[in-house]
Amino acid sequence: MHLIETRDLCYTYPGKVTALNNINFIAPRNSRIAVIGSNGAGKSTLFKHFNGIFKATSGSVLIRGEPITKQNIKEIRKFVGIVFQNPDDQIFSPTVEQDVAFGPTNLGLDPETIHHRVHEALRVVGIEHLAHRVPHHLSGGEKKRVAIAGVIAMEPEVLVLDEPNAGLDPRGVTDLNAFINSLPKKYGMTVIFSTHDVGLVPEVADYIYVMDKGRIVAQGTTDEIFVQPDMLRSVRLDVPIIPRLLKSLKEHGVDVSMAYTYADAEESLLKAFGKRS
């Protein structure tokens, strides 16, 4: 049984604009899944079906094998937490601490449990020092961490991040990568994230779905997706710079193994140039 599964999911906005067309998607336990595609591909619309914000026009969405209903939607929204692209859509309390406490409070938890969850969530995302700050006075990256902490405090089993690196500086992106990578092993969470920045994907994804115009046009591992440059170009994406560079070196006669992450590329280049046995 998969944590999330969609079967022939279709969604049409009012006005007859088709946003999703026969989407078949699976999220296994303890996985890191990237959904990539250019702006308007349907990534955000798909994500809003995962906890019942949107209702399918046709097809189905199954959470732990069960369809979303009025009776179970509260439990599903505890199970699947979504962080939207714009953190201002989720932040509204007078202080960071109060904002992060909003979700656990609405779950009806006792004050001691709420306090523990809030401070653990702040610690996990590295913003304990911001607990008493006014959220709307924070930087974009800090606001994004507050929004993530608010969802983490609900202790979901699935964390959905819509364009999580949008608006972050390079250090913020590095920190976010480390955070995403820690979630499956350290906290038992499945992470699903969207991006049109393909350079981010090899560092933080086990499996990739490629979307274009409301359809899934390809899916597979990093090795399977990023050896299809023509397909990626057809959906207005590019191959990440590391495999592109190594492919060019191979074509110029350098005996280098293909790699997709910085660490693997470093190892491959050191071996190619006799610096590593």
List the helices and strands and how they pair.
Blueprint: E1 4-13, E2 17-27, E3 32-36, H1 43-47, E4 58-63, E5 66-67, H2 73-79, E6 80-83, H3 96-106, H4 111-124, H5 140-152, E7 158-161, H6 170-187, E8 190-195, H7 201-204, E9 207-212, E10 215-220, H8 222-225, H9 229-234, H10 241-251, H11 262-272
Parallel strand pairs: 3-8, 3-9, 6-7, 7-8
Antiparallel strand pairs: 1-2, 1-4, 4-5, 9-10
Give a brief rundown of this model:
By secondary structure, this protein is of the alpha/beta class. The chain is built from eleven helices and ten strands.
Report on this structure.
This protein has 277 residues and is of the alpha/beta class. The protein has a domain at 240-277. Helix content is 38%, strand content 22%. The protein is built from eleven helices and ten strands. It has helices spanning 43-47, 73-79, 96-106, 111-124, 140-152, 170-187, 201-204, 222-225, 229-234, 241-251, 262-272, and strands at 4-13, 17-27, 32-36, 58-63, 66-67, 80-83, 158-161, 190-195, 207-212, 215-220. The strands form two sheets. A six-stranded mixed sheet has the order 6-7-8-3-9-10. Strands 2-1-4-5 form a four-stranded antiparallel sheet, with no helix packed on it. Helix 4 (111-124) crosses helix 5. The protein is globular and about 65 Å long. The termini are far apart. 39% of the residues are buried. It comes from Methanoregula formicica (strain DSM 22288 / NBRC 105244 / SMSP). It is found in: Cell membrane. One of its GO terms (molecular function) is ATP hydrolysis activity. Its main location: membrane.
